[in-house]
Here is the input.
Amino acid sequence: MLRRSRTLSTFIEELEQSGELLRIKEPTSPLLDIAALAVAQSKMPAPVEGQTAVGEGHLLGGQALLFEQVEGCDFPLAINVYGTWSRMERALRSRAGGIEALADRIKAITQLTPPQGLRGLARMASQLRPVLTAPPRRVRSGICQQVIRLASEGQVDLRRLPLIKCWPQDGDPAAVGWPLTAEEAGTSGGQGRYITLAGMHTIHARDRHATRPASHNIGMYRAQLLGPTQLAMHWHLHHDGAAHWRSWKEIGEPMPIAICFGGEPVLTYAATAPLPPGVSELLMAGFLEGRGIPMVSARTVPLRVPANSEIVIEGLVRTDAGGCDWDPESNEPIGPGAVLEGPFGDHTGFYSLPDRYPVVDVTAVTHRHKAIFPATVVGPPPQEDYWLGKTTERLFRPLLQTLVPDIVDYDLPMAGCFHNWAVVGIEKAYALQARRVMHAIWGAGQMAWTKCIVVVDAEDVDVHDNEAVLRAIFQHVDFGRDVEQTVGPLDILDHAAASLGAGGKIGFDATARWPGEENGTGSVAMPVALDLATIESTIGSSGHVPEWGCGRCILTHGQVSLPQGWTGLVIELDADVDLQDRMHVWFHTLASIDPQRDVTTHAGVMKIDARSKGDERTRPWPSFLGWD
Here is the structure.
């Protein structure tokens, strides 16, 4: 049976009927006020418990918010729409069995074997039906074009869209120490407002004449408002959108782009999914939706857009712009076709610093009648993007297990903001297996950006129980023997990395020791812990000994005296970090270190310098956004 077509508007109605939506009827400013309310809501209990009870804080998320009157704007705004397990399950049509049941469907497809006989062929056809019906469908018209406004006719003013400013220093280079004001950067007209939740549709220049361009990509990037008809485009060098832009730059033509808001709820997730090369986000969305996504021709650019979008911004990205990594201290001008984009409060919990990015010249804005504008806030966890990321963790588990069959389960803890920390459970079968798994993960797709990996025995430790994982570390790890350090690629937003997108990595083998794992020490004996009272009497008030550290972890704001013969881990943090708050401790530890630079080990004692840096040893250090 063909499923009823869904849109963001119908999804909002569904959430309201289920008690998951709060309407804000009072006029609300898009400058910080909407974001502040969304951030507060994300820390509240979820109104409906999802079936996917995985991850720390899985009962949080609050309600989705619909702001009916955004000051100075023409459309209502929806935010925190995807901010709980229940809402993610609804968005991905996986209420029966939750996200794990959907992952099992994906696993069944990835493990198909050649059919034997007619019954086997029929069974395979049934399993493949969701894939066969998933490709996008071309349609002649769509609700996204019920209203058409052309920039050439003076009908476009992006300032009337409810783009939001999320954090106080957004869009203000001088506020983060740069020698340029927003006026000098060319961005003051946008007041620090950004597009934060839209699918950016692009194609490679080689497909510019293709009827069905194979390279059609949907990316989830941000764009900064510059003025009535201009945006600043932001993407990372390794993103498909950036690769497409470079291909258009090579031929000297501006790149067409369509920035699409809303549509089928699965589209937002698909745009964030780390799909393998050559796998279309539209195909993924169609698979999740149970039918192909209808696509209609854009009005002013040679692209197709989701016909059920709420709003579409069409435009051309300037390719006469220079590249990023621009140095404000150099004599090089920003140059044509570009502005100094940023800063922006990012999902890392810190401001990503300004840099040179290309301008988008908007050619048209189309929308449906009574359109709703979607937005999100990213920052210190938990935020709405946590649930999108956890969904990826669950859905892509079968694919990661295909690459690394040793993995029983894994977790990307909230404190690690996804790229900083992965916990992996294995069924141990041989000595040093955990080390092999670490290196396999560091070579597996986007998991390659992971900074810290902890490997545990899956039979004994629940990878989703953060305290149990930490106890396994401090009960099993000899910090002079059971730690793996290397260098490699890191997330480009990792401000602590020694170089842009590259630096140290660290892995902890927290499995039980086997013969053959002596690693030059001559022993596989478990480390001996002192009782907490003995440690506390030695370090006094200058440090904290957390219970989850099992007597082998000391947290401090400065230098401490260690008990004689003690072995374990000492973490030094900034004075404003609450040493009693486990989440805060590990968030700042993982965010503020390059393991190659900031980790030292001697006589069984590992010391981690997790303080803010910002000195001659590091690249420019951004400001923390704060927890409130």
About this structure: The chain has a mean pLDDT of 91.
